[in-house]
Amino acid sequence: MNTLTINNLKLTYKNGHQAIQNISLEVKNGMFGLLGPNGAGKSSLMKTIVGLQKPTSGSIGFNDIDIVNNPDYIKKNLGFLPQDFGVYPKVNAYNLLNHIAILKGLENKEERETQIRSLLEKVNLWDYRNKEVYTFSGGMKQRFGVAQALLGKPKIVIVDEPTAGLDPEERNRFNMLLSDISNEVIVILSTHLVEDVKNLCSEMTIMNKGQILKTGKPKALISELEHKIWSKSINNDELEQYQSKYQIISKQLIERVLHITIFSKTKPEGFDAVTPLLEHVYFKTLA
Ligand SMILES: Nc1ncnc2c1ncn2[C@@H]1O[C@H](COP(=O)(O)OP(=O)(O)OP(=O)(O)O)[C@@H](O)[C@H]1O
Ligand SMILES: [Mg+2]
């Protein structure tokens, strides 16, 4: 079992922006979802964990080793797929993986070849191994990104919004791949897609404005809202009146009719009961 322990982490950028404000978390093997809107601080947190930037204060431990002061330990055991993988050189998939493997310290040639072959097969890119990576589609690039992250058999894999821009089929394929690897290692997945977290993650946290707002198992967080979510269709001009009376957690146009969903411990007059979903947890937490 691997454990990542974050205590009272703070990060202030040079321009004074506090991107991480006192975050504490414990993550163990399995898939952990980091859910939050744009600008919440997901990438800032991930880049700090992987050692690309030093926190202003606080500690990060991986398997009881202080990785802020011993970044080599996490680097040896880490796979990272950044949000913006950047420009791919005009190199084919096989040779690029080989190059990254050497950078990661996989010195034994045979071991490297075995790993690269098995990873390319795993991400379904073996048939494309001689194609240059910059010509790959978005989904293929993301799967290549997972292959490079898994080189060297990492104990912790961090993927930053990996499914953004993928079509539904490619997204499923990608999610299955992640789910497959998360049994023996820690996988931290950041996203603003509630659905990805619902389908994949055994533990999750919702963050916004550099802070953790809620942490738990998706199912448990959903059951907290049992019999507390209600909806009603209203006229546009009634919105203000409902807003002042109820705790609205989301508004939606369905066939051009405005539907509001509210949080209430008792049944409000004229509202229908709604089975709570992870979306409701997310919107209620952010509201
Ligand atoms: N290098 C930097 N210098 C100053 N501010 C930064 C820097 N990087 C990020 N920020 C700010 O920190 C906040 C958090 O940004 P971050 O990229 O971590 O959010 P995010 O949750 O990953 O968002 P997204 O979903 O859009 O990727 C934002 O307000 C952002 O503008
Ligand atoms: Mg980000």
Automatic annotation (TrEMBL):
GO terms for molecular function: ATP binding. Residues 4-234 form the ABC transporter domain. InterPro entries: AAA+_ATPase (IPR003593), ABC_transporter-like_ATP-bd (IPR003439), ABC_transporter-like_CS (IPR017871), P-loop_NTPase (IPR027417). It comes from the Bacteria. Keywords: ATP-binding, Nucleotide-binding, Transport. Belongs to the ABC transporter superfamily. This is ABC transporter ATP-binding protein.
